[in-house]
Amino acid sequence: MPILIAHSCFSLRYGVYRVEELVEDALQNGYSAVALCDINNTSAAFEFVKVCREKGIKPLLGVDFRNGSRRCYVLLASDDAAWGEICRFLSLHLESGEDFPEQAPLLEGVWVLYGDEVLREGEVPYLDERSFVAVRMRGTRKDPSSGSEMILPQIV
C-alpha cells in the first residue's frame, strides 16, 4: 500500500489533525507508514516520530515548501542525515526571507515530490530516480487522505 503524506494542525489553513489523530486515523485506514510534511515548518516533527513509534507505524519526515499559497515541492527525508539537509535548506530561506526556488534542490538522501498540479499547469520538472509526481487524494475534511498525497511504495 502506498504511504500517506499529510499535514498536521501546524499547517495553518491546510491541516486539521493533531498528531495523535493523524497517526490513529492512518492506522485505522491500514497505512503502515505516514509522512508528516507540514508547510514551511517542522514544529510537529518530534511529537510525530514519538507517537508513530508508540503506535507501531513507520514515521517519515518532510516539508511542504510553498511560496505563499503556491506549492513548489515536498522534500521527504530518507534518513536522519537527509532530515538535517531539509532543515538546513528550510532555515536558510526562512532566515533570509527569500522565496524558495521553483526547482527543488538536489540534497543527499532526499526525495522530491512535485504535486499533480505541475501536470495540469504543463510545468513538468526534471524527474530522476529520487523525484516523483504525487497524486492528490480527494475526500472529506476529516478523512486522513483528504488533501493528502499518495506516493510510490518503493520510498518506504
Index terms:
disordered C terminus; TIM Barrel; 156 residues; 4 helices; 27% strand; 8 strands; alpha/beta; 8-stranded mixed β-sheet; single chain
Account of the 3D structure:
- The chain is an alpha/beta fold.
- The chain has one domain (3-155): Metal-dependent hydrolases (TIM Barrel, Alpha-Beta Barrel).
- Helices cover 28% and strands 27% of the residues.
- It is built from 4 helices and 8 strands.
- It has helices at residues 19-28, 45-55, 80-96, 117-121, and strands at 3-6, 33-39, 58-67, 70-77, 110-114, 131-133, 135-136, 149-151.
- It has an 8-stranded mixed sheet with strand order 6-5-4-3-2-1-8-7.
- Helix 4 (117-121) links the parallel strand 5 and strand 6 (131-133).
- Helix 1 runs parallel beside helix 2 (45-55).
- The radius of gyration is 14 Å and the shape is globular.
- It starts with a strand and ends in a 5-residue tail after the last strand.
- 33% of the residues are buried.
CATH fold category name? TIM Barrel
Radius of gyration, taken over Cα atoms and rounded to an integer in Å: 14 Å
Low-confidence stretches: 139-156
- Assign the CATH class: Alpha Beta
How do the strands line up in the largest sheet?
6-5-4-3-2-1-8-7
Q: Which word captures the global form?
A: globular
Beta-strand proportion: 25-35%
Distance between the termini: 10 Å
CATH superfamily: Metal-dependent hydrolases
CATH architecture: Alpha-Beta Barrel
